[in-house]
Design goal:
Blueprint (H helix, E strand, L loop, with lengths): L25 H4 L16 H4 L5 E3 L21 H6 L3 E4 L5 H4 L1 H9 L3 E8 L6 H8 L3 E2 L4 E15 L5 E7 L2 E5 L5 E5 L4 E8 L8 E2 L6 H11 L6
Antiparallel strand pairs: 1-6, 2-7, 3-9, 4-10, 5-6, 5-7, 5-8, 5-9
Length: 233
Amino acid sequence: MKRAIDDATAVDAPSVDPEKPASEDTATTAAKKVKSSPEKPAGKSVEKERTMPRAWMMDTLDADQRLEHQCDPPEPVDLEYLKEHGVLYWKLDADNFKEEGKLDKIREERGYTYEDEVTLDHGKLPDYEAKIKMFFQEHIHRDEEIRFCTDGSGYFDFRDKNDRWVRIEFLKGDMIILPAGIYHRFTLDNKDYIKARRYFVGEPVWTPVNRPADDDKSRKEYVSTLKDGGFAA
């Protein structure tokens, strides 16, 4: 099915150059990647307050995929850990992104020529429970996966260099790019709703390659870059 997983998928940056992905201060990134408890910021507009996405190592419990799946104790990870795996992140103003201009600069720099918008809503998607299970199938793509959340929320998961799952909270205003060849998946959270914009270079190809895909060219190139430290450079 050509649009199976990605029809469902569509991670606040510090004050830095808007054309560049979010990064942390060098004094903090030299420390160990696993940090203190990843508590949610207080306040009504979480998506406007946060300056980086919440991300953490997942537990291995076979529970509802829409739960947080925090380890006990929690094992949060920082932006640099995401970047080391080729995962990029920006914070945009979801309500005024056209006037803001950041998105246009990112699209121009990275050559994105195609865009559309997808919505997942428990009350509107037929066979909802079955489909979100299908969307959760581990896979790779042979091109970048680019998503910008304009409403709602969910989670992106990716396999790290030790084959552990890392979960990234995906909220309104978050833009995330997953590199070609990375094992990943997507799920909604318990709010069961998200609206996201998708981007692509040229004609879009949404077809996933489900795991195992270790012999796929894009996977081999990703693993090679990861081992050589190319993403962290």
